[in-house]
Amino acid sequence: MRVTAAQAEAVAELFEQLGAHAITSADGDLARFDEPGVDSGAVWQACTLTALFDAASDLARVRDAVHALLGASARVRETDLHERDWAEAWKEHWQPLVFADDLCVCPSWCEPPPDMRTVLRIDPGRAFGTGTHATTALCLDWLARAPDIVGRHVIDYGCGSGILALAARACGAARVEAIDIDRDALAVAADNARINGMAADISFAPARAAGIAPCDILIANILLEPLLALAPLFASLVRPGGRVALSGLLSTQVEQVLDAYGAAFTMLDTRRREDWVLLIGLRT
Questions:
Q1: How many domains does the chain have?
Q2: If DSSP codes are grouped into helix, strand and coil, which group holds residue 164?
């Protein structure tokens, strides 16, 4: 049902008292995020509350309780969910993804297309990065076609699931380091490296760890604010003549990043997918 901000807490509490298994709020009337993961500070004045009840629940009692709380004009919409094995049904939405024609990211329960040069097994999990998001796809396409990655030292900064570190190693990088501020993400990335037979080929370290040698290629698929803050660090982590690949950016944010990186990098290429951008720069 649609509720105002003033009603939401009381209605959610009512649903809980009446035996709802889960209650969610969605479809707010304001954009709450300027970019993924960054709260704009906006507060919904109205939203849709959805409560999940067992099939044996007395829904007439639920309706009557809502009307007693909000008045007879309050509208409640009911939908029957057919019985399914939901633990398995969500897997139907995940299929193998192909990048640069022959790099495939494939869930463990699927078979990859034939004739793939490289197959990475990545299951949706606790960390960002399965190839479905435009920013990850931009990075994977670039890595798979990078002509000089063979034998190079690559840093995946903000590695998430480790998908870009795995792709770099699969494409021929000799030394790969995966770095993240989130230790849970590092654990997921290390797990994915083990699943793909690369546990001994990739090192994992928390962000800003000391002793990281300058690399040939640094790739960071994160967000605008951390990319701006990390510009001086990235300049120190990429050797002269090396390259940086920056993604997680909306097209409207490119100029800010160009300003932040212009002193140390010459931007060579800009690639776009949907509203997202990948910037590739040369360390001067």
A1: 2
A2: helix
Least trusted range by pLDDT, from 29-38, 59-68, 98-107, 147-156: 29-38
Residues 62 and 93 both lie in one domain: no
pLDDT digits (tens, 9 = 90+) for 191-244: 999 999 999 999 999 987 667 889 999 999 999 999 999 999 999 999 999 999
Encode pLDDT of 80-93 as tens digits.
987 777 667 778 88
Among residues 38, 64, 83, the one where a domain terminates is 83
Domain enclosing residue 132, as ranges: 89-283
On whether both 113 and 186 belong to a single domain, the answer is: yes
In the beta sheet, which residues pair with residue 269?
280
Q: Which of 161, 222, 156 is nearest to 190 (CA)?
A: 161
Structural contact between residues 164 and 198, judged by C-beta atoms closer than 8 angstroms:
no
Question: How many CA atoms are closer than 13 Å to the CA of 4, on its beta-carbon side?
Answer: 4
Same-domain pairing of 69 and 93: no
The model carries a pTM of 0.75
User: What is the CATH classification number for the domain harbouring 114?
Assistant: 3.40.50.150
